[in-house]
Amino acid sequence: MKLEIIYIICLSSVFGLLTTWRISLLLSSSTKFQTLLLLRKWIYYTQVIKRINGSSSWTVSRLFLLISYIIINILFSVLATLSAINLIVPFLGGRTNIICDRVFTIDLPTYELMHRWIGRVGICMATIGIFTLLPLRRYVFKLFQKIHFVSVLTLLVSLWYHINVNHRLPLIYLSIASTLQIYRNTGTRSRSDMVAEQVSSAGLGPSVFRLTCSLKRKWEVKPGQYIYVTIPGLAKHRLLFLQSHPYYIAWEDQCPRSGASLIHIIIEERKGFTSMLRHIRPEQSIIIRGPYGAEHKLHRFDKVLFLYNELSLASQLLAIRNLLEAHNDQSARLRRLSLVWLLHTHVEIKLTSGSSKVDKGNESQQFSQISARFYKVHEKLNISWLIDREWMAEAGNMAISVYGTPSFEKSISKAVYA
């Protein structure tokens, strides 16, 4: 890639951003809103490639982000090459001893030094290529996380050693900050425990576990948030202390005996880490990191339709409960909330007992229990008819929340665009 092309791309990007900014200043608020809706429809939600299980949807925005990432890497590599050409002494003829000796007159110690370092760099590049394989890359990333954690501890210890004992004020500040941080992460309880309950029975399909984790301090869990779970003592030969697995929080409550905060997650057994959950001991120690994830509020919509299949509903129980509480408190525009959950196995039907968690909170203000308003229909779902029915039921804007298998999400997208 020529240097002129790099400059053209950079200047074109800056010019395009400035032009977009100037156009946005000339548009009215309603035009901006309609433009954003159109962009979200055709860029953010439009799928380019059908996703498979265990992957993410390939939308136009994500594909553009990936292509931009590749182009930026190419540009940066070219810039690095251009700078290296101007900085590194031209010893490229070192591959042949005749050129090094007769043309550049490089002495033997220098030639041997360069020969050794070229070999070392080649070995390092080959090692990096081997570690980019998927099984090794996962463990290397987990190892990097642990090294980062150890580096943070080393930094804290170095702060203590670098504080002058004669200056008491910085020592007092650091002591208070360290004490508050330790108390925040440990609390008054000795450890975090986890109890795994196998929901499914033998012969009813894949095993499903309901994990109940006790927290050392109270969390303000918001809808759509997730945590990273590490269980060091589950299987030592699998290096589980290096593994952190993300799971959405299904719901949260308090222990009736101790009053400790509890969070619940629903996990379907697969290969790998989840296949060992059946071996969890009672009150197994666990390391929890989180909660992570931004809250996607649906309070500004008049109608909300939730469409889920299989176990995907577990990730949105908090969102449903949050909307119901906001409706009772009159802090949301919501006038109609509908939930459609497609169940295929007896295991998923048994999990409907978790719908009672939606009833938690503000029960005195509800006209009826939410769990009593669930209806089972043993028919094939006509998605287009369902969406049209919900759209015509009430006046106002409408949001559709979809989560499930790739084929299910694709069928919902086709129905919405139709």
TrEMBL record:
InterPro entries: FAD-bd_8, FAD-bd_FR_type, Ferric/Cupric_Reductase, Riboflavin_synthase-like_b-brl. It is a multi-pass membrane protein. The chain crosses the membrane at residues 6-27, 63-89, 117-136, 143-163. SUPFAM superfamilies: Riboflavin synthase domain-like. Its EC number is 1.16.1.9. GO terms for molecular function: ferric-chelate reductase (NADPH) activity. Residues 188-298 form the FAD-binding FR-type domain. One of its GO terms (cellular component) is plasma membrane. Pfam families: FAD_binding_8. One of its GO terms (biological process) is iron ion transport. It is found in: Cell membrane. It catalyses: 2 a Fe(II)-siderophore + NADP(+) + H(+) = 2 a Fe(III)-siderophore + NADPH. It comes from the Eukaryota. PROSITE patterns: FAD_FR (PS51384). The keyword Cell membrane applies. Keywords: Cell membrane, Membrane, Transmembrane, Transmembrane helix, Transport. This is ferric-chelate reductase (NADPH). It comes from Patellaria atrata CBS 101060.
